[in-house]
Amino acid sequence: MEKQPNVQGYPTTKRIPLSRSLYLLFHSRQLFFRSLLLVLLMAVLCWLGYFFTVTYLEGLVASLFGAEPESQTILGRIWFALWLAGRWLSLLVIKVLAFYLSFLLAYTLCTPGYALLSTAAEELHAGNRLTDETMTVRRFLYDLWEGLKIALFGLLVTLVAFFVNFIPALGQLAVLLIYVAYSTLMFIDFPASRAGWPLRRKLRWLAQHGGLTLRLGLLPALVSMIPLVNIFAIALLFPLLTIHATLNFAAVERPLPPAIRGEDHAG
Fold first, then answer.
1. Cβ–Cβ under 8 Å, residues 138 and 131
2. Tally of CB atoms within 10 A around 21
3. Using the 8-state DSSP alphabet, how is residue 73 labeled?
4. Which of 94, 131, 194, 236 sits between 20 and 30 A of 114, alpha carbons compared?
5. Are 221 and 176 in contact (CB under 8 A)?
6. Which among 34, 17, 15, 16 is positioned nearest to 25, based on CA atoms?
7. Are 69 and 134 in contact (CB under 8 A)?
């Protein structure tokens, strides 16, 4: 049995620093290797999903736009310019859409693994020893279903953000805040689903803890906007962000007793 991290010196408040999450991640071999496996699995699933989605949709675009139009005349040149712009815009939209679809697919398929990681992180933080948890078929399907619900909700969020983006002046800021809230939802979904919370209650929690929601979701929301590297960056950060969100969620909903927090009640 491996030696577990010492929880003394890390008092539990309603704000768990990122350093505590890093400490747990790198001081527990089980937590670290589980995280490494999930990083590799999520990156591979994201890449495969992105590759096949782009390949399929680009084939549809090619058949839709057909052969390159003639451009010898003035009208022909105008039509060629419109054709080219439409084709390039379609390809850009395809790549963005492919990223979200591949990420949401990978997120859904990896949900059971991240649910176990979230449970292990909370147990370690509370000073308990990890046991060899058995993933039952029932729990696996439950975690998959919860992940699928969040993924489908993410498609709705993306659609809403698309139209909000057209609001003058404040549209872009509103879109960022929407993605911050959704990013936080993805991570607190693991401990919240473990408690049996419905989606409505999870959304209410985000609204009730706006500051914490902003702090937990800002980094992943910004990283997801970085072109090219966003898939691998999110996959790399996902275990750490899952642990960090779990600890902060638990600090609010299931605070540790004084003996675990190391608080001195003398006097």
1. no
2. 22
3. S
4. 94
5. yes
6. 34
7. no
Q: Which two tokens stand for residue 246?
A: 């779990």
How far are the Cα atoms of 69, 188, 234, 265 from residue 197, in angstroms, in the given order? 56, 11, 25, 34
Quote the pTM value: 0.77
pLDDT by residue, tens only, the chain of 267 residues: 444 444 443 444 568 899 999 999 999 898 999 999 999 998 889 888 888 888 887 777 777 766 666 667 777 677 777 767 776 777 777 777 777 788 888 999 999 999 999 999 998 888 887 766 667 889 999 999 999 999 999 889 988 988 888 887 788 888 889 999 999 999 999 999 999 999 999 999 999 999 999 999 999 888 877 766 777 788 889 999 999 999 999 999 876 554 444 443 333
Question: Can you state the angle between helices 199-208 and 210-223, rounded to 10 degrees?
Answer: 100
Amino acid at the residue 264: D
